[in-house]
Automatic annotation (TrEMBL):
The keyword NADP does not apply. GO terms for molecular function: beta-glucosidase activity. It comes from Halpernia humi. This is Beta-glucosidase. It comes from the Bacteria. It catalyses: Hydrolysis of terminal, non-reducing beta-D-glucosyl residues with release of beta-D-glucose.
């Protein structure tokens, strides 16, 4: 087709839309009769929701943070240093040479920040525990003041009607483990993680009923030990990375067992994984099938081995002569049964089309013009939330899930009268939550959603320049300002609906 013809067709198309020539009959909209049909085919149950906005009655709404990103107080009350302290203090590693030394000063301001959670009408909060507050040095002796901080935090949350969900590892490895064992390159670190998990479960398990072992293997391993842009800043070759990944999932399994052995039967445990998400580029049957095949392969090193207890053949073959070293016994530990799976979902990682090749699928590239948030990796594609949860249910038959993170980074300008009209974040949320509602309305067992993040915070290598919060933070004064999205999210949490 000549470009002029293309232009003509385009113009006609636009004209047709303008005059209403392309009506409902030709556009793939859900008509009211289809909606009726959807209502009729759903079995009757209290848990199934029969409209296009509501969530199940017991659905939980919350927000999330992580220790190094908000706590600050990096030398207080006997806290040891972590690899993120070391990494952020090296000039040039972080935008504007920002560090988490003070961050949001959550260590001292947790009480007023819990009031912000309350103002949002949220009932769950996901935070992480700083390993080096609890075990600050290589002696293995716990630091009472470290655990005391989390005791106070948990008590204050419960007193305010908010259930604590604790993550044990959100990337701030004690520096002495990096120095002594090369961190995650060694199984000694996996074992140390198990011991730390046991201690935390013994001390908090009477009040914290939900634990996540590890947050986002892919990010801290591939970026920290592979690309060298996250702490500890290493660029290991693929065969060594294979071992790091294995040691990471082994640590998860050891922690699951340690938590079970050191707390009551009412304590639940899972992980928070940013799984790779295969989205069928066109939602037809053959692409959906291909995307399911792709899911197992693209998550081979983390979620697949955790939920299946084995690495896929293709994954092991990819190492040639140097596959990671592991035993059958370790695979059993890694795949210890979980109570729930937490999913961090921001964007699809793979757009998939069915293909007549060995794999059965092909990866379609993202268009250069694909929209993103202010984080250039964050493609705006709400359907990622639907497919992530749907695949995890269909492939691995997971019975309970949480969205442990989802959120948008925006420009967030504050007006002269301290208002932040983050309308892009509201649009992001409305669209992503619509896709989550689509999943729950089909019976995908998602129990709750944690918005990332309660407030702007130390966004790793981007320092304070990238903001995901519902609350804006003036880091000079530590004042918090609700964004318009905070108002939006409160409405969602209050009405249990997409608004
Ligand atoms: C996640 N990437 O990190 C983390 O769990 C949070 O700590 C973080 O603040 C949040 O998402 C927003 O970034 C990621 O470069 C960091 O693809 C980087 C990437 C993905 C996730």
């Amino acid at each position: 087709m000549k470009s002029t013809e293309f232009e003509d067709n385009r113009r006609n198309f636009i004209k047709k839309i303008a005059v209403g020539g392309l009506g409902l009959a030709t556009l793939p909209l859900i008509t009211s009769s289809q909606k009726e049909e959807k209502k009729l085919i759903l079995p009757k149950s209290d848990h199934l929701i029969l409209d296009n906005t509501s969530f199940p009655a017991d659905f939980l709404w919350g927000t999330a943070t992580a220790a190094y990103q908000v706590e600050g107080a990096y030398k207080e009350d006997g806290r040891g240093l972590s690899i993120w302290d070391t990494f952020s203090h090296i000039k040039g590693n972080i935008k504007n040479n920002d560090t988490g030394d003070v961050a949001n000063d959550f260590y001292h301001r947790y009480k007023s920040d819990i009031q912000l959670m309350k103002d949002l009408n949220t009932k769950i909060f996901r935070f992480s525990i700083s390993w080096s507050r609890i075990f600050p040095d290589a002696t293995g002796k716990p630091n009472q003041k470290g655990i005391d901080f989390y005791n106070k935090l948990v008590d204050e949350l419960l007193a305010n009607g908010i259930q604590p969900f604790a993550t044990l590892y959100h990337w701030d490895l004690p520096q002495y483990l990096q120095d002594k064992y090369k961190g995650w390159e060694s199984k000694e670190t996996s074992k140390a993680f198990g011991d730390y998990a046991a201690y935390v479960a013994r001390n908090l398990g009477d009040r914290v009923k939900n634990f996540f072992t590890i947050n986002e293997f892919r990010t801290f391993i591939e970026l920290g030990y592979g690309a060298g842009v996250f702490a500890p800043g290493l660029k290991l070759p693929e065969e060594k990375l294979g071992q790091v990944r294995h040691n990471g999932v082994l640590a998860h399994g050891l922690a699951v067992q340690a938590i079970r052995a050191n707390s009551g039967a009412d304590v639940k445990v899972g992980l928070a994984d940013n799984l790779s998400i295969a989205v069928p580029v066109i939602e037809n049957e053959k692409n959906i099938k291909a995307a399911k095949i792709a899911m197992r392969e693209i998550n081979a090193s983390y979620l697949t081995v955790i939920l299946e207890g084995k690495y896929t053949e293709n994954y092991l073959k990819s190492f040639g002569k140097n596959p990671p070293k592991f035993t059958e016994e370790e695979l059993k530990i890694i795949s210890s049964p979980l109570d729930f799976v937490g999913l961090n979902v921001y964007n699809p990682t793979h757009l998939i089309e069915a293909a007549d090749n060995k794999l059965g699928y092909e990866v379609i590239p993202f268009a250069k013009s694909f929209p993103t948030t202010t984080s250039k990796w964050e493609y705006i594609a709400p359907e990622a939330l639907y497919w992530a949860t749907k695949h995890v249910k269909d492939i691995w038959n997971v019975k309970e899930m949480y969205i442990t993170e989802n959120g948008s980074s925006s420009t967030d300008e504050r007006t002269a009268d301290n208002k932040i009209y983050d309308t892009d974040r509201i649009s992001f949320l409305r669209n992503y939550l619509t896709q989550l509602q689509r999943a729950t309305s089909e019976g995908v067992p998602v129990k709750g959603y944690f918005y990332w993040s309660l407030m702007d915070n130390f966004e790793w290598t981007s320092g304070y320049s990238i903001t995901f919060g519902l609350y804006n933070v003036d880091f000079k004064t530590q004042k918090r300002f609700p964004k318009l999205s905070a108002e939006y999210y409160k409405e969602v949490a209050t009405n249990n609906k997409v608004m």
